[in-house]
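Structure tokens please, single chain.
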Amino acid sequence: MENILAVILAGGKGSRLDPLTRDRAKPAVPFGGAYRIIDFALSNTLNSGIRNILVLTQYKAFSLDRHINQGWRSLFVNQLGEAIHIVPPQQRIDEQWYRGTADAVYQNIYAIEKFHPDFVVILAGDHIYKMNYEKMLAFHREKNADLTIGALQVEREDARQFGVMEVDESKRICGFEEKPDEPRPLPGDADHALASMGIYIFSARFLFEQLCHDATQSDSAHDFGRDIIPAIIDSHRVFAFPFLDENKKVSSYWRDVGTLDAYYDANMDLIAVDPLLNMYDDQWPIRTYQPNLPPPKFIFSETSEEGRRGQAHDSIVCAGAILSGGRVERSIVGPDTRINSYADVRDSILFESIDIGRNSKIRRAIIDKGVAIPPETVIGYDLEHDRSRGFTVTESGITVIAKGEGVTHFAAPALG
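Here you go.
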């Protein structure tokens, strides 16, 4: 795989994940307690045998840069020609930020050319899935394709969020529409459509030609889905590669965690007895940065005061966490987090270094890194009260507390 370069687009604002993205890029948002969202794209790339990666950043990239430096650089051997590079915006065109996905790659053509690749794999850094790109590359070579697009069957109503493809019997794409109001259904299946996963394999020379041409078009949005793909499907060999899931649990586990509710649901998937996403698979491991923390600890038992027992049920508890007489159910407890005596946490996601005060009651909440919840605080039981305190409350009723949001002076409402 020496002639393959992966380019991961990791510069999106992730505005629909606010407030979790106020201080970090979307791919840097924690996931599943110990991971970051970008770890899935990076792990897929590494597991596929691709050893040269460019990560294109843009907004609020400090935590993403730090995470990759701490957890990923040591996996690549520079002396063997391997590398992972974090590339900030070069502003090569009129000192502009990236205007679209194609423009982000175009502005980094110089860096891409340095690797002399035959093929370029372009990925989004903000999706949760397992996939072997080597199989997709073999398909690309077999078809002698100019471009191959990862394809996923989705509910037709959901397809409005994606690029929707029409293909012939050979999987060649004969129609493409970006985020259509009325997605074209699959032949013989009116309820589903074929969606682009935002995974592209380009033959490198062809990619350079198309990016340079697109850059000269004043009416272009400089986006792969809106501009480049529709312009080439009639004149070039463009194919769809059906998603092959390395998860080996369901036929197609792929999640776009672009909204707070979708993010919450994907995390909650992980605490099931038999979760849809297998994080315990040593054949396709998901790697991340592991801080030097002691094992989780549960203290106070049945010999203590009544009800004062550190315990967790149907939950993920990360390294460094201490359940000091508090109770956790159906939740994810991040690293270096403390649940103090008589506190009760249910159906929640706690990021790193959270402190839950004594007798606090937390339900259906996402609490960002470093937040201290004072004793006797109640969150998630009275959503109107949560809103009045300035917290974000999602459509499905998840209360989100951002970094730096003070909670120490808020009186706790009565439990409902």
